Write the structure tokens for this entry.
Amino acid sequence: MDFELTEEQSLIRQIARDFATREIEPIAGELDKKARWPTEIVLRMAELGFLGMVIPTEYGGAGLDAVSYVLAMEEVSRACASSGVIMSVNNSLFCDPLFKYGSEWQKREILAPTASGMILGAFGLTEPSSGSDAQSMQTVAERQTDGSYLLNGSKNFITVGPEAEHVVVFAISSRQGNRPSITALVVKKGQPGYLQSPHDDKLGIKAAHSCTIYFDNVRVLPEYVLGTDGQGFKIAMSTLDGGRIGIASQALGIARAALEKAIAYAKERKSFGQPIASYQAIQWMIADSEVELDAARLLTLRAARLKDRGVRHAAESAMAKLYASEMSTRVTHRCLQVFGGYGYTAEYGMERHYRDARITEIYEGTSEIQRIVIAKSALG
Ligand code: CAA
């Protein structure tokens, strides 16, 4: 597989790097500390076309490829993991399924303003008692005689939920024996029966607000059904195949931020009369982190290349997400150790990277779920 970047891909990476370094990095610590939604960053990401990167321009997107998306995601997440996941949710979890499964009306009326960043979208799969076992959901969409659905239930940990104009909600529309038949509905915020909790108080990615959304007899008109009745679970799974590539890129960005800081610090900080970078204990931490970061990037780029080619990439996305997220936890742990006591304080932002890395092993499928997906593919 060729990992040489095209001129366009290199340019996108440079634009993302300049934007992230100049405009996001200086305020990332404050966003985290205050758990403040980054309105100004979201507006700039919209201007740069970063909120619908792979969506064709006729539907409001930037018309780029998944590799460009991965490169930009790493740069944004290196500066601020919260901004990274906001970008990832809008691109991968909302715009992607709308483009792949949406009707022409949905693409013009809902996808286009979301891909251009005028409004945002979110993804509602998880429920209070149904996370890894997604088919065990309790939310119900009862089909009415006029073709509309009556939606009842709740979805939690919905990243971007508080700010999203629409949420793709997965709900049980009928049962065939013991198996639920799941339908995907695009639900507009603010209609009767649609309620939201205050945003969650979390360990990391504090500026990327998430919340619980409650549906109490919310009426969803037939034109808001995504795909066909009963197709919802496959829509959720194939969407997550792409989403996991986004989270792998976020994990890369977080780890790179920590490693770059640790390398600079190790060259400056002296102990026993020498820069700590001269000690093998530190060099080995840096060497191991470099290797793991590169390996994770190659896995992520491979998954993105397969997605661009339209080849099934469920296992490769799971491998990229599993390895990159666990790598990010290991690398931020080591880099914090390089900083010693200063790593534990907020002064250098190392503790932010350490906290932010941890979520990448949990959302869009835990590491344990990624291993199930990989094992299923290997065992056939
Ligand atoms: N693409 C298309 N179809 C797929 C698929 C894929 N990648 N994976 C499975 N399917 C299909 C199967 O072929 C099967 O179809 P048939 O019924 O026709 O045979 C159907 O889906 C059911 O498949 P399984 O029997 O494998 O399903 P399962 O119940 O055993 O679950 C699982 C499989 C992999 C564990 C799945 O439940 C899963 O991925 N769980 C994790 C959920 C998750 O990632 N949640 C994240 C929430 S979103 C989030 O985190 C966002 C955020 O905050 C940023």
About this structure: Residues 306 and 312 are 7 Å apart (CA to CA). The longest strand covers residues 149-159. Residues 85, 89, 123, 125-126, 132, 134-135, 157, 159, 233-234, 237-238, 240-241, 314, 363-365, 369, 372-373 surround acetoacetyl-coenzyme A (CB under 6 Å).
